[in-house]
């Protein structure tokens, strides 16, 4: 190999002289080549292999959106909201008759668990589905007018707790999505 290089370059200490090439049309420039695609590192095939080698992976940043439950303040916020909400509901003559025979402490606990789930928090809800839970109220005349009153009280509660308008709108959309089931349609 060394002798080949000596012949090609004229020896170790011998200068090389470039001779001009015969004039002709210039050769076309070579096409630009793109960089080769990076190949993924092979995955370890055993625990021992994965412990003995470090595989560097590119850091991929992903934005994880927090749930409504987290953005409004989690458990403490839902608990406060439900307590204020039921005070408003019980003071509202349009709808308080639907809670006359209700154990409000148990109702508040069910509502806290339901809103936690509906707002994207942990699932601790074990109550009935909305249609089943409200069927007896529908038989007593529960209507869109009453559902609207509940929605007003929910919005007023969240406003009182200084929840930003965009989160109130998101909570209202979630609550509104239950209208058909609550009213047994």
Protein traits:
mainly alpha, elongated, 51% helix, Globin-like, 185 residues, disordered N terminus
Structure description:
This protein has a domain at 80-182: Globin-like (Orthogonal Bundle). The chain has 9 helices and no strands. α4 (74-91) packs across α7 (144-160). The chain starts with a helix and ends with a helix. The protein has 185 residues and is mostly helical. Helices cover 51% and strands 0% of the residues. The radius of gyration is 36 Å and the shape is elongated. The longest helix has 18 residues, at 74-91.
Give a nutshell description of this structure.
This protein has helices spanning 2-9, 47-52, 68-72, 74-91, 104-118, 130-139, 144-160, 165-176, 179-182. The chain has 185 residues and is mostly helical.
Gyration radius from CA atoms, angstroms: 36 Å
CATH topology of the domain at 80-182: Globin-like
Supply the CATH class of the domain at 80-182.
Mainly Alpha
Number of helices: 9
Helix content: 40-55%
Topology as a string of helices (H) and strands (E): HHHHHHHHH
SS content category: mainly alpha
Please report which band the strand proportion falls in: under 5%, 5-15%, 15-25%, 25-35%, 35-45% or over 45%. under 5%
CATH superfamily of the domain at 80-182: Globins
Mean pLDDT: 79
- How far apart the termini lie comes to 88 Å
Q: Give the low-pLDDT segments.
A: 1-9, 11-24, 46-50
Number of strands: 0
Shape verdict:
elongated
Sheet of most strands: none
């Amino acid at each position: 190999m060394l002798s080949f290089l000596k012949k090609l370059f004229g020896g170790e200490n011998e200068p090389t002289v470039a001779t001009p090439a015969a004039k002709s049309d210039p050769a076309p420039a070579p096409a630009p080549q793109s960089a080769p695609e990076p190949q993924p590192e092979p995955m370890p095939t055993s625990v021992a292999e994965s412990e003995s080698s470090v595989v560097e992976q590119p850091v991929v940043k992903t934005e994880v959106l927090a749930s409504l439950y987290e953005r409004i303040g989690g458990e403490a916020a839902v608990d406060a909201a439900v307590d204020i909400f039921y005070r408003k509901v019980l003071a509202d003559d349009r709808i308080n008759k639907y809670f006359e025979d209700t154990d409000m402490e148990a109702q508040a606990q069910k509502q806290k668990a339901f809103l936690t789930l509906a707002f994207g928090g942990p699932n601790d809800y074990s109550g009935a589905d909305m249609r089943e839970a409200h069927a007896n109220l529908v038989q007593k005349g529960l209507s869109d007018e009453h559902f609207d009153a509940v929605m007003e009280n929910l919005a007023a509660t969240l406003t009182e707790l200084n929840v930003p308008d965009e989160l109130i709108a998101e909570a209202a959309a979630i609550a509104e999505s239950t209208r058909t089931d609550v009213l047994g349609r």
